[in-house]
């Protein structure tokens, strides 16, 4: 579109909000034979202060178009009322009432994440939601529509830092991972925790110098560090091709942020299955990253709609009690977890309770160990209570499902076994 515009001797204005994107775009435009003499590239933050100097464009292309309602963008767009404006975004939804219908006449929905995965443009992924000390009731929204730092701090218990490392080692050991967290303080704690376990990690945030940040990114690209912990940095645009695991250590009320976090690890590579570890229950608000969403509805202004963008909240998704995998109910065949093969109940995901984490994990691991080594446990795992005929079977079944001892006696008596 830019090339055809310049071929007709009309001007193009390309708006971005990050320097990195600017450089990438200029390279791509050159390759694509766009007449650069007829093209103005610019950072919104810069151009908005020099509007009078911008040559009148016929076509305006806005990168990360979900931001275009912001004043800085609006000042530029309003200056050129006759231009055709194209907003490009992977997340055409904003936090809050005002949506893109305020400025856009229509939406053209591209291919879904599902389709792109099927065609190999995105890697398939596995989603895990370990139990933690996270308390969603403590979350409060700030003026941006997303949660405040103070409330995130309170909702994410400090105990979670060691837990994050433990779950990484269990679920994604050795994978290159990016951690998203809510504050510099928490980012530093998480990075320290990884390093103390011998897993190389670096923390970067908005106050990190450009040199240090570039160095961290380069080392990560060269696989010299395993974990990159960041606060609001790697959301849009930064080119990090070798992320295989994303760890969400912060909740968000923004669908756009959720998708940017979780999809960060979906760059495809032969044989790759990405891993998303969600410590903040984000999937309960937004569903799977690749759920089909009604974007035509999403651009309509009105009440908060993040939640209604979920096709079937809670019901379609199940968490495995043994391996913590979050799977679609439709993936559960014969009542078994598609990841670990243990019995899994298709019910609405339980709210996280404040269980004693260490104990619970240990018990669970002991039980997994026992199941693996006991034919009896494996046998009864696939049966209904009506198919159990001996005390031993009942005991095994009760153990598997965590029933109290009295249950076994009660059922045995009812069945006439004792
Ligand atoms: Zn499982």
What report would you give on this structure?
The protein has 418 residues and is of the alpha/beta class. It has three domains: 2-89, P-loop containing nucleotide triphosphate hydrolases (Rossmann fold, 3-Layer(aba) Sandwich), CATH 3.40.50.300; 115-313, Rossmann fold (3-Layer(aba) Sandwich); 374-415, no CATH class. Helices cover 35% and strands 12% of the residues. It has 16 helices and twelve strands. It has helices at 2-7, 19-31, 44-47, 71-79, 113-118, 149-155, 160-172, 184-196, 210-221, 255-262, 282-286, 295-298, 357-373, 375-381, 391-400, 405-415; strands at residues 12-16, 39-43, 59-62, 84-87, 125-128, 177-181, 201-204, 227-231, 245-248, 274-278, 317-319, 325-328. An eight-stranded mixed β-sheet has the order 7-8-6-9-10-5-12-11, sandwiched between helices. A four-stranded parallel β-sheet has the order 2-1-3-4. Strand 7 (201-204), helix 9 and strand 8 (227-231) form a beta-alpha-beta unit. The chain is elongated. Mean pLDDT is 84; it is low at 311-315 and 348-361. The chain binds zinc ion. Residues 320, 322-323, 325, 337, 339-340, 342 line the site of zinc ion. Zinc ion binds next to loops.
Describe the secondary structure blueprint for this structure.
Elements: H1 2-7, E1 12-16, H2 19-31, E2 39-43, H3 44-47, E3 59-62, H4 71-79, E4 84-87, H5 113-118, E5 125-128, H6 149-155, H7 160-172, E6 177-181, H8 184-196, E7 201-204, H9 210-221, E8 227-231, E9 245-248, H10 255-262, E10 274-278, H11 282-286, H12 295-298, E11 317-319, E12 325-328, H13 357-373, H14 375-381, H15 391-400, H16 405-415
Parallel strand pairs: 1-2, 1-3, 3-4, 5-10, 6-8, 6-9, 7-8, 9-10
Antiparallel strand pairs: 5-12, 11-12
Helix pairs in contact: 7-8, 13-14, 14-15, 15-16
The structure holds zinc ion.
